[in-house]
């Protein structure tokens, strides 16, 4: 089956019944008992039921227009690869976080290829000051006005100080800095949406490391990117792998996307033991060194469910044509299958710097030293193995596919509810098995107000709503957590 343009029939009221029984299977949440949200399951066996489905699906939907252009709907090949005469100017949002510091490592090693013109950071003023001294940006932004005086003190003695801005206004100005060619969005959460939109409107290409840009904002951001003719280049290892694999494919040549997953901390645990999980257990990732939140997402496999949604928006792939496979070694970062059944994979050591580098340098390939960028040693790498993911162990997969098919604001609600649920788990206010249950209850409630073609304001509104609703479920006592002591 050829991959179609990105469209989300789900709950839009424009369901195509040509998929027949497959739709019923795909929308079901059979991996666990989710009575409310799994009510969106399509059981198409007769005309009356189809009519009933349409009536239920349309409840609360304010727009029927669902077509969203994918980031790369056709050929992913540059017409002509030109080497820049000087370093590419980069704006970096989230400079003191994991993505930001790795981006700056790349810039430091390749000063002839990249230069930093603007930085936006949170509250880590000490690290930001070091970055300013090293990279000499003309503009920086900090989260709070209270940090400005501290930052200026830390920069004492510099011959030229950058312009310092604060808050939302500052981060937006960093994103649309007039000199920047590419903006690296390393910030976490929906706070990254406004600066990304500002960068797109200013004609900047996006090196995308902010998941919410597409998971929550896809229905709004992608038409905007198409309008302004900008490129959205994925910095996640999985989506970068897919992007690298499709370089040069003719239009219509892509058949299937295969996302690889490590399986997380509980890959080798029996399902029955998951009720005993403690926070410390969930933070033991077998391969990657990551932050606490993403490590828990890897344990639940919610990170892979969210990546399915991103792949749908990035590459225009139908959800039927995006698969997940557990690959314990994390050497193959993802694969694509072409129409003639060939499979193309991208391999490398688990290192986020490579996908970040490729988003910054595309369509060029930059030489990297073996000292800081170890080359893949096939003998050291050893065997590569694969396993089918267990839907009982990882119910987040079925929930993510269902939310993706619903489309609109549902995917943003899924992501925001997950963020709140993981936060509550890390605070030991809910148990590990409660995470997906809490997300499912939030998504089920949101069906009443689903907006298929949301504005930016509606996307941000429902992001906040999902977090508040998930918290209220726990604090009101209507959700009874199972906490392991």
UniProtKB/TrEMBL annotation:
Its cofactor is Mn(2+); Mg(2+). Pfam families: DXP_redisom_C, DXP_reductoisom, DXPR_C. Residues 347-469 form the DXP reductoisomerase C-terminal domain. One of its GO terms (molecular function) is NADPH binding. Residues 90-218 form the 1-deoxy-D-xylulose 5-phosphate reductoisomerase N-terminal domain. Pathway: Isoprenoid biosynthesis; isopentenyl diphosphate biosynthesis via DXP pathway; isopentenyl diphosphate from 1-deoxy-D-xylulose 5-phosphate: step 1/6. It catalyses: 2-C-methyl-D-erythritol 4-phosphate + NADP(+) = 1-deoxy-D-xylulose 5-phosphate + NADPH + H(+). InterPro entries: DXP_reductoisomerase, DXP_reductoisomerase_C, DXP_reductoisomerase_N, DXPR_C, DXPR_C_sf, NAD(P)-bd_dom_sf. One of its GO terms (biological process) is isopentenyl diphosphate biosynthetic process, methylerythritol 4-phosphate pathway involved in terpenoid biosynthetic process. HAMAP family: DXP_reductoisom. Belongs to the DXR family. This is 1-deoxy-D-xylulose-5-phosphate reductoisomerase. It comes from Ceratodon purpureus (Fire moss).
